[in-house]
């Protein structure tokens, strides 16, 4: 009895101690000290970014010494000062994540609310039947010194960001009333008709209807479970490149269904009215023609082009259905450049390029507007078209609503092809580069605005190829593929994708040439490119030093 | 913090209770030596003289609520990379190696599988083990393929002279509960031991998101988030039955492990529905029998003390089975949105036949061992065709010693060949010299290699990733030299030991998963990497109730292509441990863990800065104290509490995989 009495206080103390220990309050949050940091250390040539493979990179129009880059994780859009080596961030304060909200239906986690509607994007997506999808960063369009448009996939939209501080930009989103070409029901993430609401992004998730369509595997397109069950159609996916064409914003949606099978729904392009003259940008679907089907699968980039007569067109690179993997047979359908007149709301012409497998970067156009060059997604090549074929002001204004095919097969119409799948401009392989059988490369291309010079990047070889550009002074004179481009030199700027290059800078992608005259207008690098490994990076190089 | 204060407040009371037991009692019992312990138990894997081997007994550490990863992390040269909370997977790196370069054995039988080349130790629990042995560097090469960094040998719980039953129940943070029961006994020629442990946790925890610092500017916000989908249920059983057969012994052991747990994904892409389900077994039959003593040895040196022993025959047959299911109905990988439903099975058969014996000759004692091994593995998968591989190995070792064991010379040679690959020669030489009683000098050099795993060779082609059937084995050499100093002084308070080992190594054709083309990743033989560094371990026991140990490891593991530290390998680690109290009844333990910076990318330009964390534990044997001494049944009744990461630091070993903050656990263990 005595022992028992003496035991009780100790046992109670121990039980009390155990209970206290197990109480939820004892568990820490890992916040007792400084927050965990992952420190990225720049190299002399490169600004390092978190995550690999920066999905977007562009020079800021109106700010020749600045650029903007998108990084995957955490998703951010960062303005860059190009006057410093390596490029440095414009932002000096913390660049915040996208705002986050709790979504009970999606695991109860804080998830991005990138469109600023006060609800997690994933929650919106789940409520609309698409599942808990959050935005994944994609292409980037520099609109102005204080505005960049980031395309996102999964949660399909375009987000507006201020590159100076990385913060989301407010805009006004408005849904036009229903009309012959516009049905608000097809735009499930847009506000009610008549309501102009403040947002930071606008949705590109749209129901597209048409009969007689097939996907890239040849399967007929029936009703979509997300859309009107009485009509054949599909929903847009994989928002890709965008371009500002006059007062319109033209956005491509690749409509990738399943990458493992190279399955794509028909390609589409969305047209929005974008008003930047107001204090806050205003966006609405272009009511008279908001959805345009492309002539092929997988439209990936959109580039604005203005004809000598001042006509504003959108050039859409239709890459074709592409399979993942290595080898020669990854391009499963034809490529083309579709020419869209946003005012007409349709494809007015198309330039078939065969099974080229066009690259995903935007089209490079020379300062005279004569030659357009495109990179490749699966080969060491460039493709090109003669933009003089689009100079005809009557293009697309005829009675025929079908696009004019500019490959020489249409009587009376020019052949706009300069380099196509059958006659590509082959970039030289770097002697110490990647084994071509192992690494299926992709290329990106840029044209100088101050010199007849072209620079192309090679993903696998890690090289930049400098080319001389020789365009005839007479715009009506045909371009000779044999003389318009000439390789000047090839220089390695990164390691090749090879077995021994682990840890080294490699996987170079988008290339841009700084506007102005090197050595006169600035003293630093004139060529900038992104690298995907081992970290995402933006690097500079002097072409004359290559 | 209130809890920590309570612990500190209670400590003096417990201390007083311990004193009541009398200091003389503590001295009367032989304490189990703290790591490193050499020669205290019969090793299940014999260790070559001169090898760097650390052995840790588990019983003493179970009462501190230590886990397998805790014990391994204490060993100099070993880095444990943890990727989540309680119950989550962790990886071992020894001297800068990758986990595939550290084979794991259970009683000398391979646990690591041909599937991945590594072993997931989170499927086991400490309760079923008696000892953990870690051999680092050159001393491991004799184990064959994979043993580039080192070898871990887990020793199962043997039956002792007296029947023993242990029951343990533990609970702690993150809604975790763990229990085990162990029983071992001998009866006549028979001996048997059975161990079971079960573990369940909800596992979810809150963490602070990492900030990326680009160009000096933080990107992203360090918000507090919930880490979800950490639920885990694990059952592990180990049964052994043995019998004397003549002068020999026959032993059958069966390890069974089942694990179901969530796979939470990365910090920035938490997977709510991804789950894995693993089942594995290891069945091993071991027969040992002494052969007739060779007469030539005795005749050769009849005047010697004749320490020759009869040769012993050893036969081991083992079967390993693994089934891994992984499901994620909604993966969010950018280009791989197809639901994942993967089932992989692996059957592995292995056999070993060896003879070892000792002879006296040439003025010394020489232990000779000849071993032949065979192995056959077959993998089946619902995503790929079945693959199989067979291999064999021959090993010869000599441990020659002279001058009352003051000089050991141990050359060894292993020949190994696997289907489709070249014959590999693995020579090694170990030297140990004890010029004085208090000093031991060690040196070793060895070649090692690793054959590619099934995963590396035959990963199903999903478009964006695939295996590489053309991979070559990794080839390496390693060397080390070290010294062990024991205190030469008689005074008890100068009871100390210092171990220092410098090591270096080189690996050719390292296998790495990397981008090989636009949108495609695979395994490739990459360039050369070099490793060098040192390990320093100090143990000091100035008083029977005060034990201080510390270990520091500095590792420079650099890729030759960039001259930068290999991703994931900490440049240095320092661990300190202070233990107070009479071990048999009360112990208060404080630990400090310093981890140097870790490269978070292959290029070395993304860095996780260094950090310090603190752990502490208190354990009391209630059966030894007056209030309960008369009431408690059995030999011991341990009540333990442990706190981890008491400073609540934001810890992580990989950039997107946060670890929990401060946590606690309480346990009660009865021994009878």
Search tags:
heterodimer; A: 546 residues; mainly beta; seven-stranded mixed β-sheet; B: 672 residues; Maltoporin, Chain A; 22-stranded antiparallel beta barrel; 8% helix; disordered N terminus
Which helices and strands, and how do they pair?
The complex is a heterodimer of chains A (546) and B (672).
Chain A: H1 2-22, E1 37-40, E2 46-49, E3 56-59, E4 66-71, E5 76-81, E6 88-89, E7 100-103, E8 109-112, H2 121-127, E9 135-144, E10 147-154, E11 157-162, E12 167-168, E13 171-174, E14 196-199, E15 201-203, E16 207-209, E17 233-235, E18 239-245, E19 248-253, E20 256-258, E21 263-264, E22 266-275, E23 282-285, E24 291-297, E25 299-306, E26 312-318, E27 335-341, E28 346-354, E29 364-365, E30 371-374, E31 381-386, E32 404-405, E33 417-419, E34 425-426, E35 443-447, E36 453-458, E37 463-469, E38 485-492, E39 506-513, E40 527-533, E41 536-541
Parallel strand pairs in A: 13-23, 28-32
Antiparallel strand pairs in A: 2-41, 3-4, 4-5, 5-6, 7-8, 9-10, 10-11, 11-12, 11-15, 13-14, 16-17, 18-19, 19-22, 20-21, 22-23, 22-24, 25-26, 26-27, 27-28, 29-30, 30-31, 31-33, 31-34, 35-36, 36-37, 37-38, 39-40, 40-41
Chain B: H1 2-21, H2 23-28, E1 52-57, H3 59-62, H4 68-74, E2 78-82, E3 90-94, E4 104-106, E5 109-110, E6 129-136, E7 150-156, E8 164-172, E9 176-187, E10 190-201, E11 205-208, E12 211-214, E13 217-219, E14 224-227, E15 232-245, E16 248-262, E17 265-266, E18 269-270, E19 275-290, H5 295-300, E20 309-328, E21 340-361, E22 364-381, E23 387-402, E24 407-418, E25 424-436, E26 439-450, H6 454-458, E27 465-466, E28 474-486, E29 495-508, E30 511-517, E31 520-525, E32 529-543, E33 546-559, E34 564-565, E35 572-580, E36 586-595, E37 598-599, E38 606-608, E39 611-621, H7 626-629, E40 636-644, E41 652-654, E42 657-658, E43 663-671
Parallel strand pairs in B: 4-7, 27-31
Antiparallel strand pairs in B: 1-6, 2-3, 4-5, 6-7, 8-9, 8-43, 9-10, 10-15, 11-14, 12-13, 15-16, 16-19, 17-18, 19-20, 20-21, 21-22, 22-23, 23-24, 24-25, 25-26, 26-28, 28-29, 29-32, 30-31, 32-33, 33-34, 33-35, 35-36, 36-39, 37-38, 39-40, 40-43, 41-42
